[in-house]
Here is the input.
Amino acid sequence: MSIRALWIISQEKGESGKVRFSRRYPTVESRASRMGRGSYVPVPEDSALLRPLLTDLGLTDPEKPFVEARDGCSRLHRTAALELVLEGRQGAGAALWPVLAISQGGLILACLPLVEAPPVPRPPLPSLASVSQGFSLLAGLQAFLSGSGAGKAEVESRLALLPAALMQACPLGTPLETPQLCQPLPPPTVPLAGPQKQPAWKPGVHRGRALVSVAVSEQVRSMQYGNRARTDLWDVYGTVTCKCDLEGVLPTVTVTLSLPPNGSPLQDILAHPCVSSLDSSLLTASSVDESDGSAFSGPYKFPFSPPLEPFHLCFYTSQVPVPPILGSYQLREEGSQLKITVNLKLHESVRNGFEYCEAHLPFFNRGQLTNTDLRVTSGQLEVAREKSLLVWVLGQKFPKSREVSLGGSVSFSGAGSLGPVDPLCTELTAYIKLYFRIPDVTLSGCSVDQHSVQVYSSVKPRITTSRELISSEYYIWNSTGEAPVSSGPMRL
Amino acid sequence: MAAPNPEGWPQRVAAFSCSPSHFLSSTTPEDFLSDLLQDLKDDKVSESTKVLMLGPLQEHPTILCPSPQVGEQTAVSLLGIFSRTAHTPKSVNLKCHLMLSIATVLISTSFVKQGVKVAEGFLDLLFQTAQDTNDQKHGGMFRPLRAIACDCLREMETCCPGLLSHKLEALYSLKQQEMTPLHQAYTLLYGVALRNAVHCLTLQKDVMDGDLKKLLASNEGFAWKATEKPLELVQLTTMSQIPVLPSNVETKELKSVVSLLLEECYLLTPVTQAALLRELTQVVSMVQSLSPAIFKSQLLRLFGTVEISLLHSTLQMKGTFTDSLFTAEDENFLLKRLVGMAQHPLLSTPQKLFYIECILHFPENRPISSNGEESLPVLVTPRMAASLFPTVFNDSSTMLSRLNILSLVYLEDDEEEGIGYIFDHLMALHKIVDHHGTREMTTTFFRAVYIFMQNFYLNEKYTIDLIESLSELYRRHYTLAPNLINLVDSTQKLLEDSSWPTDLLKALQMLIVELPLQQLIHQSLYWHLKVLGRVAKEEQASQRSTVRFLLNLLINSSLCGLGDWRIGNALLSVCRNLLQHPNLDQVFIELADLLQFMMHSFEDVDIQDHARFYYTLLTNLSKEKLSGVLNMGTGESQAKIRSLSSIMAESEELSSCLTVHRTRQPVLKLVKLSEDGISKPDHSSSGPEDSTPDVDLLKVYQKQFLNPEFASVVILKYHLTFAGEVDALYHKLFCICLHFEQTDSNYERVSDVSVPCLIYDRKPCVVSLTLKPWRPYPTVLHASAIFTTEDGLSWHTQLDPIPIGFPDLFLPLPVPVHWSQGSREQLFHQLWKSLCPEESSQSATSLFCFEVGERSLREVIESSFHKYLVSKQLNPESYKVLLFLPPQFYVLLKIKNSEDAASVSIITDNWKLLPFINSYIKCITDYSADRTQ
Here is the structure.
């Protein structure tokens, strides 16, 4: 359960990659060579790793339309682990496997887990314990380097802190914890060891005001086609985030999520490891199953002992009966003009109070917007001519009727001219994308009652709870054009 | 390399880490290591710098300590530094790094053995450090050191399994006592030691009832004996057979130990929990009388976790214990969870991809086959998998991964509707590619087609449609030719007996040959020819239409007149494949026409030549011979590929063959042959007395120089040999061409030297270097070589610079062989006279005196000037020496011995030579003086 080496590579668009950090674990390597026997492939130097890795990720030779090593059909990229063919080595000894890599925002994090199994025939990935450890480590590193919205300069300074952080989190190739940004040194005066062991994931104890806050944030996705042949789709997924400032080594808290009567059950619940026990009924509802009315629908109890930092107590998904905003979008080509009709309707069960609500209407492959002749029944219209984008700002409230519409015509400079292009949105294939946030609402109805939060601690804490609904991937497709979907089973 | 100042360390360490091999090409590991160790001992070097300096030892110990001995010495030095470093909170970080470095060096040089003092000492140190539970003795500031000590102990135990097997009781009580977050380190250490100890026990013969109990209560020294015959390092769970303890063994104590560990497991970080669960799974699997039900209490918590490592260890538990821990209901439930998580919108993509793999390798309670191949668990139904159906908005890996699993689902189910869904998805991708999708989308589309073919190649309804769609795509996007060719190659390899790849090629061929001429613009033609070239390799495809198309194209377009070499070459490459086609007879005449037309009309000489060559081959060789000649390249040695490149098909290997590679390190060197081995044109042996009648010797002599080539060159001889130990790849070199470059303008360009071959372990090769000086001053030549290795690759290597010293340029007096001693002396006098400064503005005289040591003057002269001696007299001892330097310079010496000093009168016609001759004489006389001391 160890990793042999770790790399952090920066790769900006249009530039060649650069190894920013690497760490090798020779004691693990010595095990690798003992176990690998004839098929052992040593970890190459950074420079020899870089190009094969970037090639496998499809990041080399951007100017060449086809490179076999990068684009070949049989080099399938559906696994989570890469096989790197090292240059200058031949035969069986040339491939480094399994290299795990995740990339985000110009940074590529990669590691090579130890294969603790007979190397021939190649063992399946899930049989290797080190693989999930490697993924955990990479995810931890990712959070360490670019977590909480770190900018470029911040990433640089965190890279400099990395060796010290790894000394704690993974000194000898076996990941022990996620790398910590601030390493709270143990207090110089050690508190007398109490009767309770302090959790390893909680390096200190909180002192000060007691506070528990629980936030339920739901995101709703939707694909609406306005077409009888295609079922409209939507779903919702939620995150419960907690921040608990409580004294004591192991205070316990129980958070209870509840649904309104007849609410559809929370599905695919994933709990944070600090949750000490789970009732089996919580886990039964799954998006994979046909949901039936008999399923358990709460209350959902999560007993846990909180870590010091804010954390995601649980994730869930839910199938709700209606989308919050139902829309229709129709485009018609009339001569050089494009006639637009849009209707949006806010469902009556959803609170009419937005923090923001915008509908974006992008146009592709038509050049730039030249003329617009549009009317809206509510809100304002902003036109970004160069981007060929209409932004319909609906503001904080829908009108009493809960319906708004947009109509009129637009014309463009023509397909050959400058303007946004998209291979998906050709001819009349077009969409509206909605962006909104409604505070104090969840679509599933899931909520945390302030009084249901139980805290077993010496001091009575202040308890706050909140809810919100945010749009994510909320599309309304033009019903007169072809939507880019296959006829496959209806899923998002 | 001189020891640099401590400020240079960050750069040096960075340079080393960046590329050790490159860094060590300018120094040796020994030097670097000794520099490191020296400055680590230096109190003036800051602690943060020292931490940095330990990096190379922590990451590349085997490079710095190539032998166990060096490893041992290094560990001893580091341990010394550790004990000398003050035990203060300020130094904790350095001490941690020192501890880590020592462990790394000892383990990676395989030096954790009994009787190795430093290993034993270090283990004691680790154990002592670990014993300060709850920071009672040293306080909380030293907690990091304790953490590292535990980690080092665990690593020692992992690499030498069983080492701590007699200390279980001690480790257990340490783990129990610790209340700070460090209990995690002790717990994991105990877990690893426990697993290994039980494993050792299973390998023992005659295990008694109480042995396990005894093992848990053991508190002895390090079990060096266990490390003598090391255990298999592979995870027990991946072994085909897990070793087990006999069922009569007393397990009560073990049960309570495991229960307690599981109870407290919750206090560990998720990754460590996962690691501990794996250790315990292995322990329980080896002790069969211990029921796996002991894990039951943890299962629900694990099923519901968001942590990838915890879920993964649960799956491993499932694989190990199957239905003795997991009911059929559990299995169904777990599988559903996995499918749900494989598409959970709140999990990261790599995590989801991993879960899809976990589904395909799901440890079923009753597996139908367990060959390690991907297979679909019986319980996964199309309904269940429907949630994994890909969309065009998925990223490439997710899409392909989902497509793969869905294909398996529908294949299993034999559901026509499902295949239809997948085909529709392909068509949605097709549409995007058709609308100029990104390169990534294009690649994904072709891979998706590959996956589709892999699973549904028997379903003609769709595969025929697919050919049509792909041809349509090609009609509009001819730049997709390489993608299509790759698809054909890959599917052909995958589906050996399917005709689909050939059918696709035939469709493309038909499409191309039917294109109207005016559509064959220059750019597209190149791609069409590529496709036709590939079609021509297909035995089942008729080639007549191709040949007619090409002939028609050449006759009715301006191509021949334009004479584009690239197009010509592409045409020829189609022809080449046609020449190899088994049904060549069917197109024989047309192909001959085509080649003949090209050789007459194509306005490029090279293309004409090749066309003629092919034509000759076609019309003169039998079919067998023809394919014999053309097949030579493929699969044969690469050396032949090179020589036959003109009739070779293009391939990536070929381009690597035609590239000159660079060697990383010098492979060759030139070693100068000693003076005796050099045969300079010998003019010194004199002819019979008085063979030269009364003539003006000087005139006769000077007349020789009317020929500009006369005595104008110096020939130096070298051994060409290998530069030390070189890679076996370079043990046989051929066609070595040495190239020299002068560093100044005093010499004429040195011509290249060729050596046919050089073989390791055989005699070195003698190489003559011909120098033609304009001005005979010392110089340095740069040298490089190009050669071919046995595998046919060409290499370029740099040699060490070749110094040309002043004495290398001396030639004896160039006079005809038959000249007598007397004539030579006479010439010497005449030259001397003519060189007197009054006669020439360039000439100069000088006087040099030196002390004659014990070594007589005669010896000095004989050894250095033997060949250039014109006369010698014994009493009084005097010598005349003439040094001729091409093109035509002289240094004349009269050397006299008087009393205890010798004097050298020097005259030369080029005063610029004086400093060189002075330093040379000083050198040889110093040398003689030194030798006598």
